[in-house]
């Protein structure tokens, strides 16, 4: 009854209007569908997204990845038991045979792997989070990206994401409301100070105002939080995505109009943390600098240091980070590694070593809600999935609202 009958892929669109891979998995009685997301500030150690590099869609077509699902993967998954996720992911890893999914494409494997899990959950008539872990009841605190910079916006802010973290709320529902109220207050402030064009939004739904300095963005954020009356409940988080403003030649970081060495950049972060209620900083230094990250962990004692491009959801890199004490949290993106099982393994390794786990979307997203269920299933305690606006972002927040309601009195909420 739970044997896979068919696996079928097609080319669909992501939130930036780029092609991506959607996969349908069917058993006799059940169906599961999922779609691969796509990053812009991608780490050099991420699993590889297969793109056609032909004329259509400016080279971004994914017909080869779709072909790989329909003609290679499908054959090998037919007849397999859909509830054996690890076994199926192992087949995907072996069929690919490379260290970085570059043969089949991580976009092909991730969409397949997630669609398999969805089909399995449906075949057992379970919600996805419960299928993935029946004991998990923790709703994550949202890290809501309300000001976009870096590669996600057309402004001059070096730092990519300015997030509000309503961790003092009593429930997920309340945290979402608080974040949303601040988002709207911020809109009013930006419009008044910088004109109507300042409230145009970036890739993740946050505003992309024409600001140049980090402190300008943080000042308006603090103002929005204070005006809304949530100083107690809300803290701030940054994703510097600093590989995107690191200049290899001079070993400096281009930020706020100057070129800072890593030592000066760490001092700069120390200053920010002193001045603003920042509790989490992602990718403070470029993606190869395990030693520099360790310095950040030491010097910013009360701040969570998150590894995204540094760790790329890869157990080998997480192990290196554990050895060097380079990060206190893992940013978890399923498409960075290419299968659900490998992502869960990455989360478990991080947790066993007392690292926090932040489940994350990509800047190019889809209507898939899988990461919402995954955040609950992993007991992650943190999710970052953009502003409380744009359908591909709210899809995840809305799914968490459903899960919270469904769990009822069993639901817990909190930062961990
Ligand atoms: C990040 C992500 C998601 P992208 O850097 O954390 O916010 O961006 O998907 O462009 O890599
Ligand atoms: Mg990041």
Question: What's this entry about, in short?
Answer:
The protein has about 425 residues and is α/β, with parallel strands linked by helices. The chain has helices spanning about 65-75, 85-95, 105-125, 130, 170-195, 215-230, 260-275, 290-300, 315-325, 335, 340-350, 370-375, 390-405; strands at about 5-15, 20-25, 30-35, 140, 140, 145-150, 160-165, 235-240, 245, 250-255, 260, 280, 305, 330, 355-360, 380-385, 410-415. The protein folds into two domains: about 5-125, Enolase-like, N-terminal domain (Enolase-like, domain 1, 2-Layer Sandwich), CATH 3.30.390.10; about 140-415, TIM Barrel.
Q: What can you see in these coordinates?
A:
By secondary structure, the chain is an alpha/beta fold. It has a nine-stranded mixed β-sheet. A three-stranded antiparallel β-sheet has the order 1-2-3. The protein is globular, with a radius of gyration of 21 Å. It starts with 5 loop residues before the first strand and ends with a strand. The model has no long low-confidence stretch (mean pLDDT 98). 2-phosphoglyceric acid binds next to loops.
Give the N-terminus to C-terminus distance in angstroms.
39 Å
**Alpha-beta content class:** alpha/beta
Mean pLDDT: 98
**Going across the major beta sheet, what is the strand order?**
5-16-15-14-13-12-8-7-6
What's the order of the H and E elements?
A: EEEHHHHEEEEHHEEEEHEHEHEHHEHEHE
Report the portion of residues in β strands. Answer: 15-25%
CATH superfamily of the largest domain: Enolase-like C-terminal domain
Radius of gyration (CA) equals 21 Å
List unreliable stretches of 5+ residues.
none
Number of domains: 2
Shape: globular
CATH names the topology of the largest domain as: TIM Barrel
Helix coverage percent of residues?
25-40%
